[in-house]
Amino acid sequence: MKRKLNSYQEVCISKRQAVTMALPIQLTPSEERLKLLLLDVASFINTTRPSPRPVHLRWAGGWVRDKLLGIETHDIDVAINCMTGEDFGRQLGQFCDLPSTIEKYAITKKDLGNLHTIKANPAKSKNLATATCRLFGAEVDFVNLRKEVYTEKSRNPEIEFGSPQEDALRRDATVNALFYNLHTSQVEDFTSGISDMKAKLIRTPLEPFQTFMDDPLRVLRLVRFASRLGFAIDKEAERMMGIPAF
Length: 246
What we know:
The chain has 246 residues and is α+β, with helices and mostly antiparallel strands. The protein has helices at 7-15, 29-48, 62-69, 85-96, 99-105, 164-169, 193-198, 208-214, 217-229, 235-241; strands at residues 19-21, 57-60, 75-80, 116-118, 130-135, 138-144, 146-151, 154-161, 178-181, 186-189, 201-202, 232-233. It is globular and about 60 Å long. Keywords: RNA-binding, Transferase. GO terms for molecular function: ATP:3'-cytidine-cytidine-tRNA adenylyltransferase activity; CC tRNA cytidylyltransferase activity; RNA binding. This is Poly A polymerase head domain-containing protein.
């Protein structure tokens, strides 16, 4: 049986708007090169595969958090609005094989590692078709924006394409729910992650009870992030962590 959204979740999804900020994220030369290449891939796809929903790209989660905190990071999650990570990865591979692309970006063998794809296989709890590769010195994962629907009998969710808002709300902590929009060069915040980061606070995007019921392992993740970043855990989340069920 699927869990229905509670009133708090419905309000979050229907009314919450992104706070878009031109925050000082300074890209390294390699990150700028990667950004421009990915934007070219998106344009290539939109031109060769016209669709009512053009491909729109965001860097998500940990990379955004660490860049804002001044922490060096080489792991980048690319969130795609309307196609799977596996599909986008294959298009990327084709685009990078074009002589014009190789010349424009001076791509060498060391710049582009082998592309690994992971097909969706719900029978083995693999509900996403993703791709990963090493590109310009970064470990890059490609995955679609998604929403998750949990049942009462399993912590493995049913996954559907989702909006940026829905993708942000499914995450474990607000500081991990930020996006860097490649097309606007701005940070998007749907869950008050920026203010929580300034307050050095680990807080769940949804009510802690719902977040932990959906996936109890998030308790451990929040403790790990609080320890790593030197942040405090939100009092309500901390209270829920103390309940024996978790």
